Structures are given as C-alpha cells and as structure tokens.
Amino acid sequence: MKPAIAVVDVNGIYKVHTEFYASPLARKTIILVNGSMATTASFAQTVKTLQPQFNVVLFDLPYAGRSRQHNDYDHLISKDDEANILLELIEHFKANFLMSFSWGSVAALLALAKRPARIEQAVISSFSPVLNEPMLDYMNRGLTFLEAADRENIGELVNSTIGKFLPSLFKRYNYRHVSSLHEHEYRQMHAHIKQVMRMESNCQMPYLARIDIPLLFINGENDEYTTAQDARLFGEYLPDCRFATIENAGHFLDMEHKSACEQTRDAIFGFLQSTRPVERLHYPQMDVQHAAMAV
To answer: Which residue of 11, 154, 205, 288 has the smallest Cβ count within 10 Å?
Structure first.
C-alpha cells in the first residue's frame, strides 16, 4: 500500500516530509525515527514488518531526504531541535508508539524525557549509553572525513564498520547514498557527532531518567559499536526497561538476514502487544534544550 505523503509545517520554522502508511485493521500508530545520514527509504523492511498491525509514520528531518528541498540551510539543527520536531510530529499523527534506530535514538530519548502524553511505549534499537572504543574510533574517523566532505571515505567507513554485516546489495546502496549527500548534510553529521560526544562526557542519563514509559532496547549480538551489554546500563537509570539481543546480527539488525528480521519482529510485537501503558506521574515540564545544556 502506498503511503499518504504530506509536508508538515513545524512551528512555522521547518517543513518536514512525512509518509503515513495506513493499515485497515490497525488501532495504534507507530512513528519511526531515522539514524544519522538515513532517510525514510532505510525503513522499507521495517514498514513491511509493522504495517499489518500498526499504522506507520516515517519522516525526513529538515536537512535530509525529501525534506531538504523545502528548507533553507542558514543554521545547523541540533539533537534538541530534532527532539522538538519529533514531539510535534507525535502530536500531529497522534502516535501511540515510537521506534528509533541508532543515533536517531538520541533525539528520541530526549523527546521521551519530556513525557509526551500520547506515547505509551518505545523501542530503541542499535543504541547504547556508552561511547566505547570501537564507536569512538568510528566517530573520530567520521569527523575527519565529514569535515573534508570526503565522500569516498565516508561511504567506505560506514560499510567497513557499523555496516560490515550488511548483504552486498545493501552495502552498495548504502555507499551510493552516503557518498552522494549534500555538503550541508555532512556539516550536520559533523555537528551531531560533536554534540553526542559532549552529551556522553557530561552524563545525560540523569535527565533521561525522567522517561516513565516501558522501553525495549534491541541490539545485535555481533554489534561491537552499540553492544547489548552496554545497552543494559540503561536499566540502572530507567524504571521500566526490557532488553532483546538479536542472534548473529550486527548494527543493522533486520536488514542483515532473514533470521535477524524475524527475531526483531518477534521482539517488537512481543513487547508492544503485551505491555500495558503506565499511569503517568505529573511533573513540571522542562525545556529539552535547556536540560541538554544543563547536564
């Protein structure tokens, strides 16, 4: 089924390309949050998995994909800005669930820390609260290549690190996509890496501990960049965490092979269809940007 496509105005500042995949039998809606340098196209497999049970919302951030043509580039967008955009889209589409991938999880968790009233549960995939040695090496090399807009090395870096378990066809697509981005997108990614590094060094977890809904963290058994073991550290701060490890999978989980796709599907459905929404406590709202700067 083809999606309903719309460009959503966010606070009169950003124009966001969105895709709404309706399912005739669905009673709930899930919004998906891209990883860095990704677009709605990267969720093609995930949409096929989710759509029979849920309405699915995809979107491109203002600087990326099909949103880029609708926005100017007079300033860089922070992860805090992304969180606020996500909060607006949650309201616009009346989303009940959220699922994020990789560094899209930074904005997703910042948004969830503001306790959006509609979101009942969230799935956080291929993410951990730790920048371990392999991830720091990947990020530091990425900073060098992004600053120079070195397209060839950016594409090769992604495929030789976090993307090393992808099938060859997906690697070719990944390389073509990552090595052909607009220079403004490389500047955005450079700024995001710097911000993520600052967040980790300043310990963002006390703020994220405000999240009060059930969360499922999904990581690949062979992912050395966001490991399943490191993801379990979220359990020390967040009140209701579940964890799933996808066997014989790396960073890209359901894109890597059929078994990983089936395991990921079972983990998501088992979580979203079995957990009751929590009764929220009421706390004063805190501005995302202020909180991110304060920790």
So the answer is: 11
Contact status, residue 219 vs residue 265, Cβ threshold 8 Å: no
- pTM for the whole structure: 0.90
For residue 134, give both structure tokens. 């392999």
Q: By the 8 A CB rule, do 83 and 107 touch?
A: yes
Which structural domain, as residue segments, surrounds residue 214? 4-128+207-294
At 203-226, the pLDDT tens digits run 578 888 899 999 999 999 999 999
Residue 169 to residue 84: CA distance in whole angstroms = 35
85: domain CATH number is 3.40.50.1820
- Return all residues near 58 (Cβ < 8 A) that are at least 6 apart: 3, 18, 19, 21, 32, 40, 43, 47
Model confidence pLDDT, tens digit, residues 131-181? 999 999 999 999 999 999 999 999 999 999 999 999 999 999 999 999 999
Where on the phi/psi map is residue 253: left (φ > 0), alpha (ψ -120 to 50), or beta?
left
